[in-house]
Design a protein that fits this description.
Strand order of the largest sheet: 1-8-7-6-5-3-4
Helix content: 25-40%
Largest sheet: 7 strands, parallel
Number of strands: 22
Bound molecules: S-adenosyl-L-homocysteine, iron/sulfur cluster, FE3-S4 cluster
Distance between the termini: 53 Å
Oligomer: single chain
Radius of gyration: 23 Å
CATH topology of the largest domain: pyruvate-formate lyase- activating enzyme
CATH class of the largest domain: Alpha Beta
């Protein structure tokens, strides 16, 4: 195939701009329902194989399902074998430096593959591709990459692949600012659990966080589209859905024509015949009373809330721009516990925010004790270029931060153990997810509160709900015995 000379290839070099990514415009959000892949692109992947490596959060994992859906409509088939792959995509995460380091390390390995097989198409997508500095680094230091596309450009992938096959230059298309929502994108889902986006982007701009720059402004999917998707997943036999958004409690804030918020959405989804519904992530700021009231109705709404706190100290929370205080957070926790007494709370915490003193860190430890989280994701603060916190003075040595992280985790483990021990002797409902990693005779499943339970049972129970009596519960795993199966299907 020859390159078409009349085409303007400069339009396929649109790198991201940090200045644009910071802006929040007032333009209306358009929802597109007319997505389609042109016939001529549907043959491009015939007899070819794809492989995608995904980093980061569930949003990214779900984007990978969309990318897989697109590639398969173009004729590509999946492979786990890198040598067999004709296209390899890295769907990247930018949230901390070590996530980025992994990807640059991987690019080093992929260079050898590309040298051995020049027809291999190498692409980088996801949150790192939204960063100006990353794209500059790839174009200058990793010129063997064929394609970079952003989180707002996923629907453009079929066209971009075609361009990458024809072009001698690296194809880069990253829109920094994009309000539109594209419905009807194909998605490749497997198993018994499905992710469902309810909104995109983030307007919170916590001072340490890169996500508002990599995912654009907050925009909610229309309730009718979310509900139709959930109904369809129920019809297809999925057992659990996870509603996704960077800040699901801001759902609907951007609707101008209707007054419909996350609590309303949950109340409507509650009536759909899908056995388990979860959501992530909730920002404490927008967690309103109506939502608590709806969650307390339980049914298919699980009694587990992931409620990132980040810090227990008001000065740090202020400098993080979290827009709530320790007291607000604790008040919210008390309200939730009162309405849902058996609720399980988990959280995210950052230690070593610039200038965090020992006393300020102690406030986080004391908050952890006060709330009694079941588990938490804990991170050492990682400066992200372009965010306000990266400019703040930081005089805390790294070893001190590591020691604080260790202490925090030790405290958290005490509570995880306590909460697991509470389960001893109880019979709980478990959705069986599959065989355990190390022993095919042992099954792994999750409780309503999202705790992982292992028990002996037959493969035919995968995808079923069973009752399991908890017999052992040390810190990191819970062992049970099958009581009676299945309870419902
Ligand atoms: N939208 C979600 C979080 C997305 S990022 C929310 O607001 O809860 C997931 C977690 O990564 C955050 O909760 C935070 O704890 C952590 N994180 C984000 N930026 C970070 C940084 N620069 N350094 C360390 N941890 C960070
Ligand atoms: Fe990042 Fe804060 Fe938005 Fe979460 S709410 S994605 S931590 S800016
Ligand atoms: Fe990472 Fe982007 Fe998710 S930065 S955490 S993949 S939204």
């Amino acid at each position: 195939m020859t390159k078409q000379p009349e085409k303007d290839y400069s339009i396929y070099f649109q790198p991201p701009s940090l200045t644009d990514a910071k802006k929040r415009g007032k333009e209306d959000i358009t929802v597109h329902y007319d997505f389609d892949i042109p016939e001529e692109l549907r043959e491009l992947g015939k007899d070819k194989f794809y492989l995608i490596q995904t980093y980061g959060c569930q949003m990214n994992e779900h984007d990978t399902e969309t990318i897989m859906g697109l590639l398969e409509q173009m004729g590509y088939r999946p492979t786990d074998d890198r040598k067999r792959a004709d296209i390899i995509l890295l769907n990247t995460c930018a949230v901390r430096e070590n996530a980025e380091d992994k990807v640059f390390g991987e690019l080093g390995h992929l260079k050898h593959l590309k040298t051995a097989k020049p027809s291999l198409l190498l692409g980088v997508c996801g949150c790192m591709s939204q960063e100006e500095a990353v794209v500059n680094r790839i174009t200058t230091k990793h010129p063997f990459v064929d394609l970079i596309f952003g989180t707002h450009n996923i629907h453009r992938l079929p066209h971009l692949i075609k361009e990458a096959y024809f072009s001698k230059e690296m194809v880069v298309e990253v829109w920094s600012k994009e309000g539109d929502i594209i419905e009807n994108l194909p998605k490749k889902r497997e198993g018994i659990k499905a992710w469902v986006n309810i909104m995109y982007g983030c307007d919170k701009f916590c001072t340490y966080c890169i996500v508002p720059y990599t995912r654009g402004k907050e925009r909610s999917r229309r309730p009718e589209d979310v509900i139709a998707e959930v109904r369809d997943l129920a019809r297809q036999g999925f057992k659990e859905i996870m509603l996704l958004g960077q800040n699901v409690n801001a759902y609907g804030k951007d609707f101008e024509d209707i007054n419909y918020r996350f609590g309303d959405l949950m109340d409507d989804i509650r009536k759909i015949d899908i056995p388990r519904v979860r959501f992530t992530t909730s920002h404490p700021r927008d967690f309103d009373d109506h939502l608590i009231e709806v969650l307390a109705k339980k049914g298919n709404l699980m009694e587990h809330i992931h409620l990132p706190v980040q810090s227990g100290n008001n000065e740090i929370l202020k400098r993080m721009s979290r827009k709530y205080t320790r007291e607000h957070y604790l008040e919210l926790v008390a309200k939730i516990k009162k309405a849902i007494p058996d609720v399980v709370l988990t959280t995210d915490i950052i230690v070593g925010f610039p200038g965090e003193t020992e006393e300020q860190f102690e406030d986080t430890v004391s908050l952890v004790k006060e709330v009694g989280y079941d588990s938490a994701f804990t991170f050492i603060y990682s400066p992200r270029e372009g965010t306000p916190a990266a400019e703040m003075e930081d005089n805390i040595p790294y070893e001190v931060k590591v020691a604080r992280l260790q202490r925090l985790n030790d405290t958290l483990n005490v509570f995880s153990k306590k909460s697991n021990e509470k389960l001893l002797g109880q019979t709980v409902e478990v959705l069986v997810e599959g065989e355990s990693k190390n022993n095919p005779e042992v099954l792994a499943g999750r409780t309503r509160t999202n705790k992982l339970v292992h028990f002996v049972g037959g493969k035919e129970l995968v995808g079923e709900f069973v009752h399991v009596k908890i017999v052992e519960a040390p810190t990191f795993y819970i062992k049970g015995e099958l009581v009676k199966a299945p309870v419902k299907s």
